[in-house]
Structure formats: structure tokens, C-alpha cells
């Protein structure tokens, strides 16, 4: 499935290829506040369709994940990370993908608060 997503104002937009019928909901201090529903794809399965310079970033804790957000509207459409095995991943906020039926997703709870 190919999807298109963006922040609210459109300064950050992307396309991604993958299976998007499941999402992860994390309860860590950051994800809980943002209310994201995440789907993971290999980084090369996601392409920005807007300039990379439009991304603002935030990192916390062990600084392993680069959380991207729009400095204009504040929405965080995706994050990037390198896994311990060296694989580059993108965590897509499915709430930023209009064609996804959020009610149809199988949502898995992840206990990030305990890590």
C-alpha cells in the first residue's frame, strides 16, 4: 500500500510504502503527550516530498530516535532511527495520513514508560 501524509500546514509531506493495518501506541512521556499511532517501515520505503530543511527535530533520553516536527504548525508526522542491527527505520504517525481509517487499525500498546 502506498500512502501520503503530512503535517497540518503541509510544509512537511511524505509518501511511504508498506502494510498499514496495524499501529503501535506508546505510553512513554513523549508519545503519550503527542498521541501518535505509529507504523514502522524501512527508511528507504519513505520519501519526503518537501524539502528536508523544513524539518525541525527533537531528541531526548538516549537520543536514538530523531523525532521530526513542523516548526510552523507543530505537528509531528514521522521519526527516524537506526536499529541496533544497523537497519534505518521510519516511524510514521498514522494520524497524519488522511486515507488511513484509524478505527480499523489493530493497535498494540507498547510500554515505553518502563524503559
TrEMBL record:
Molecular function terms from GO: carbon-sulfur lyase activity; metal ion binding
Domain CENP-V/GFA: 3-111
Keyword tags: Metal-binding, Zinc
Record has Transport as a keyword: no
Superkingdom of origin: Bacteria
InterPro entries per UniProt: CENP-V-like (IPR052355), CENP-V/GFA (IPR006913), Mss4-like_sf (IPR011057)
Pfam families in the record: GFA
Keyword Ribosomal protein: no
Protein family per UniProt: Belongs to the Gfa family.
Protein name, per record: Uncharacterized conserved protein
Source species of the chain: Xaviernesmea oryzae
Amino acid at each position: 500500500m502506498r500512502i501520503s501524509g503530512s503535517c497540518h500546514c503541509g510544509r512537511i509531506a511524505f509518501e511511504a510504502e508498506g502494510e498499514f493495518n496495524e499501529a503501535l501506541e506508546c505510553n512513554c512521556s513523549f508519545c503519550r503527550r503527542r498521541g501518535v499511532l505509529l507504523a514502522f517501515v524501512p527508511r528507504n520505503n519513505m520519501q519526503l516530498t518537501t524539502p528536508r530543511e523544513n524539518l525541525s527535530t527533537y531528541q531526548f533520553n538516549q537520543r536514538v530516535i530523531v523525532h521530526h516536527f513542523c516548526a510552523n504548525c507543530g505537528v509531528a508526522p514521522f521519526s527516524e532511527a537506526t536499529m541496533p542491527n544497523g537497519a534505518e527505520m521510519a516511524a510514521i504517525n498514522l494520524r497524519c495520513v488522511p486515507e488511513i481509517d484509524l478505527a480499523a487499525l489493530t493497535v498494540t500498546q507498547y510500554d515505553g514508560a518502563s524503559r
